[in-house]
């Protein structure tokens, strides 16, 4: 309410009360002003009334919400369902223009401001999470795989002769298909087994670069967050190799923002060598609906080139979701979630080790992986080939989601590429195993229930194995008795 309207209100309601109400509104407006001036995530989270006031202020800046607006174009922000309009806070025009996802729309000042503020707030959070020297980022309404494709397509114009992408193996389909979709040939570098861990084979990477020729390689496509027993790539060493050979370096940091170790690897890689861009998921790091990612890097002009490669306008939903979430949490709330995740990782690790010991299995030693854990299923695998996959089914039907059971010898063909030992990141990992992860938002209750149900499933298998062994012993004894009688 402006001063003129406040003066009019004082003729209807006691002036002291109106001024008090104006002061209450002023408290909300001071928060909005700080956000607009600083472009940073507030330290303390906002209440929902402040966020809704802010979104309403943005929405009435878009032409589709102008009183008396007359639209005669093909895209005028018309929405027939009131429910849909409210779901999007009447921010209908999306973000960007036909030639640049980061460009300002003349008839959607509010949506454009939302886009700019979201990118600025997210950049602040990436710095807070550990990549202090990141120069630029933007939210793109695509998940991680397609966002990686956008990066590769941008590099195509810089390296027109290149046809290969060097890729240390990680058995996850979307990152592999991101290279195929961009029209490049993945060169798979098998991981080196060191103890229980699968680590980057740096000698194999450098040998392949020499064999193919640096000018024929689009980039090295490395990974931070991953399922154990694979661990984050040796980013520092890869970054140095890329710098030495003049090869771009794109990092798949899918759910790495929540891990200080993954973010430290990116920061150090950029410090000692070359990292051109790193891509992270919105839903996995900020607990919002699936459908968005952040593309970030250390060279602002290159990140702008990627944003300009996106064809057409884009949905504002991912930007809106993550902005609302970060304003609700504030930096203190997000840091608290990161701290809790790290504590739950330690708890899950210690408790899963106890359970493994009780069942004559072991927690694999994957200390370089800060998010995912793996427990061997060697006894289960040796007793029954189908038991490993059956365990996965049992856990799923008991409402345990996210746990992965990985049998030995699985073969999978993805876009005409055949992977032996698929899901295990290696052709022949020594044992079958089960994965569990401590991701952001996990609670102690989740860990306790998971361990209880896993323990019950493993006891069921042990009981069945003992019964089968007893039956076999009785059968052998009967056969021996018959031979003696004969």
From TrEMBL:
Pathway: Aminoacyl-tRNA biosynthesis; selenocysteinyl-tRNA(Sec) biosynthesis; selenocysteinyl-tRNA(Sec) from L-seryl-tRNA(Sec) (archaeal/eukaryal route): step 2/2. It catalyses: O-phospho-L-seryl-tRNA(Sec) + selenophosphate + H2O = L-selenocysteinyl-tRNA(Sec) + 2 phosphate. The record marks 74 as: May act as a substrate filter by repelling compounds with a negatively charged alpha-carboxylate. One of its GO terms (biological process) is selenocysteine incorporation. Gene3D superfamilies: Type I PLP-dependent aspartate aminotransferase-like (Major domain). It is an enzyme of class 2 (transferase). Its cofactor is pyridoxal 5'-phosphate. One of its GO terms (molecular function) is O-phosphoseryl-tRNA(Sec) selenium transferase activity. It is found in: Cytoplasm. Converts O-phosphoseryl-tRNA(Sec) to selenocysteinyl-tRNA(Sec) required for selenoprotein biosynthesis. This is O-phosphoseryl-tRNA(Sec) selenium transferase. The lineage of its organism: Eukaryota, Metazoa, Chordata, Craniata, Vertebrata.
């Amino acid at each position: 309410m402006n001063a003129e309207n406040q003066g009019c209100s004082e003729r209807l309601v006691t002036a002291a009360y109106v001024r008090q109400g104006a002061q209450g509104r002023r408290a909300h407006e001071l928060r909005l002003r700080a956000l607009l001036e600083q472009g940073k995530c507030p330290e303390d989270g906002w209440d929902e009334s402040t966020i809704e006031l802010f979104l309403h202020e943005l929405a009435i800046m878009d032409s589709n919400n102008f009183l008396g607006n007359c639209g005669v174009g093909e895209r005028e922000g018309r929405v027939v369902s009131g429910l849909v309009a409210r779901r999007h806070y009447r921010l209908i025009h999306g973000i960007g223009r036909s030639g640049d996802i980061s460009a300002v729309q003349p008839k959607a000042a509010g949506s454009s401001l939302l886009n700019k503020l979201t990118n600025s707030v997210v950049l602040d959070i990436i710095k807070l999470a550990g990549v202090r020297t990141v120069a630029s980022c933007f939210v793109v309404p695509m998940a991680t795989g397609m966002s990686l494709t956008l990066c590769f397509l941008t590099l195509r114009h810089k390296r027109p002769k290149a046809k290969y992408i060097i890729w240390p193996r990680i058995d996850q389909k979307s990152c592999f298909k991101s290279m195929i979709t961009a029209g490049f040939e993945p060169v798979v570098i098998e991981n080196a087994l060191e103890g229980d861990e699968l680590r980057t084979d740096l000698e194999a990477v450098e040998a392949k670069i020499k064999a193919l020729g640096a000018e024929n390689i689009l980039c090295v496509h490395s990974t931070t967050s991953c399922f154990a027993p694979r661990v984050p790539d040796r980013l520092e060493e890869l970054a140095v190799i890329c710098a030495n050979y003049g090869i771009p370096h794109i990092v798949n940091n899918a759910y790495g923002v929540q891990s200080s170790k993954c973010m430290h690897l990116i920061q150090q890689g950029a410090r000692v060598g070359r990292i051109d861009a790193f891509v992270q998921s919105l839903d996995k790091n900020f607990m919002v609906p699936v459908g968005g990612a952040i593309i970030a890097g250390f060279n602002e002009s290159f990140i702008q080139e990627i944003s300009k490669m996106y064809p057409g306008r884009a949905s504002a939903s991912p930007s809106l979701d993550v902005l609302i979430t970060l304003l609700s949490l504030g930096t203190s709330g997000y840091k608290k979630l990161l701290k809790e995740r790290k504590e739950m990782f330690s708890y899950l690790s210690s408790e899963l080790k106890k359970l493994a010991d009780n069942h004559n299995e072991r927690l694999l030693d994957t200390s370089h992986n800060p998010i995912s854990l793996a427990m061997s299923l060697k006894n289960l695998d040796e007793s029954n080939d189908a038991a490993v996959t059956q365990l996965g089914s049992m856990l799923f039907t008991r409402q345990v989601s996210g746990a992965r059971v990985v049998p030995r010898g699985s073969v999978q063909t993805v876009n005409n590429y055949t992977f032996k030992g698929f899901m295990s990141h290696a052709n022949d990992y020594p044992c079958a195993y089960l994965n569990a992860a401590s991701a952001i938002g996990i609670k102690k209750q989740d860990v306790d229930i998971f361990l209880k149900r896993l323990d019950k499933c493993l006891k069921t298998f042990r009981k069945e194995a003992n019964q089968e062994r007893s039956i076999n012993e009785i059968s052998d004894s009967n056969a021996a008795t018959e031979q003696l009688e004969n």
